[in-house]
Amino acid sequence: MRTSSYRRVASAVLVVLVVCVGVGVGVHPAAADPPEEPDHGLNASEFYPLWSHDVDGNISLNETAIRTLANGTDISYLEPPEEVQRWNQQDLREFPETGTKTSVYPEGTETTASDRGWITDAYTRLFAIQPSTRAFVSGSRQPLYVPSKGSILATTDYRVDLPEDDTTGSVRVFYDLNSASIESVRAVSGARTIGTTAPSQTVQINYSDLQSGPHSVGVEARIQIDVTKTTKTKVCSDDGRCHWETETEEIDESITVEDTRLVEQYSLLSTGYVTQYPDGDMGVVTKQNHPWAGLSLPENDTANGVWRFYSGRETDWDSLTKTNPDGTETVSSPAQPLQVYAYPSTSQAELATTESGFSQPEGELLQTQGEQRPVPELPASVNVDVANESYNVSSQLAVRHAEYEPKTVEVRGLVAGTSRELSPSFYTTVKTRATSLDVEVINATSSTLRVRVELSDEQGRPVMTAGYDGRVVVEGTPVETNAAGTAIVTIERAEKGMTAVYEPASFWKRNPAYTSSSASFTGPSSFGGNLWMLFRLVLAALLLWLPVYMFDRMLDLDIWPPWEGLW
């Protein structure tokens, strides 16, 4: 699927070039720029599409195709790009190391100090939670979806600011820093510890057992210093002799800092039905508790919901504030984390294929159900196609496919790594049977027909429609069959052929399910019908023999009447 996405991306490069060059697009200054070259093991096709939240329009014909496209617009994905996780893990190592005299933190970070102020500019800051996806569900609802098990990347820093030594007077005070360290780091969800790791300035904490629903998730770090305070007091006797008395005090100063983010635990708890049609086709319907991406089907086909993805850097990390005893300065950040975003790109779900060329998916989208919502507004720096005005969240999709291989069907989530196969524990297997429909006219008048219909399955067993969504429609008149599979209905008479059709309920609405069937019938001849038949025969005879008669009269061919001489 990713390969197909890149192929479509590359094919769009020429269009972007023509448009951008034609309108004279120039370079626009940006407050901060993403990294310019592939790094951390990512190749060009993996690296350049990741950097939305930049200023588009910097087009150069000297660049590679993928870089030119990424500079000119933003590139979307059919599934959450896993390259984001690889980048973040490696890029966290680029965060600058500092000593006890310097603290470095993302611009805008709230720092704090210990009670005595000896530990200052202290903080911890979430670099990334992964895998995760920020979903633009609506203008007011944009949850950060995370799985029950993942990892949290974070940075922690501080600096030590001890009082200056007092080296004058009869009482002199000296401060010596014995040790300073980040004593502990843990991942928290409310008051619960959900993960720990060895303390460091940059950490990756693997967490687990995040419960369902919204949570405040973050990192808590404890910073501690050990200081020896030495007090020297000059003591003089009456005879004028003086000496220094020394008193030492070991002081432990500590502070706890934290950074949290509101998240919503994401897991696919799908339920649904699977069936095999009599012709061998597979039917699948699934419903999800969260917004979801769609279904992966056999033969590289997909049933895609409305959701697409893009990756953008967290712009809070564009700049770092660096503080030390000499002052404060702002520097460019060498570490820039990425975040995956999901947005509604179409109004409705669709069936597609990842095969190259002009291949078409081998199936059909039977039904889409879900709440209709207004399209949320994306950040101004993001240039991707979004749905018009409103979209269907497509919480339920029903698909028919030419290959019956339910074990290969995969439900795709909005968060990387959350896709899962259909689980027999949550899916009901439905038997779908073929049907036949028989129609018999049991009474007729000049204007009506009394018709008996009989609906049965492939083994001759009656099919009842009463109490189900399915129905039999006889010349536009709906009727329900009883437990014997029969129904009687009176309809208006028509001399032409008439039709009865069985419109079954969807396979996920009854078990066993049934296929559609139809039957044609005609009523017995009536007096009016016989007159009409006679008129048509006379008209046909006139149209056939009138030209012969006219030619005989005009040309004296002596062939009229044509039956003369037959006896």
Automatic annotation (TrEMBL):
Keyword Nucleus: no
Spans through the membrane: 531-551
UniProt keyword list: Membrane, Transmembrane, Transmembrane helix
Top-level taxon of the source organism: Archaea
Stored InterPro entries: DUF8186 (IPR058499), DUF8186_C (IPR058911), DUF8186_M (IPR058910)
Residue stretches making up the DUF8186 domain: 94-266, 271-422, 433-520
Protein name: Probable secreted glycoprotein
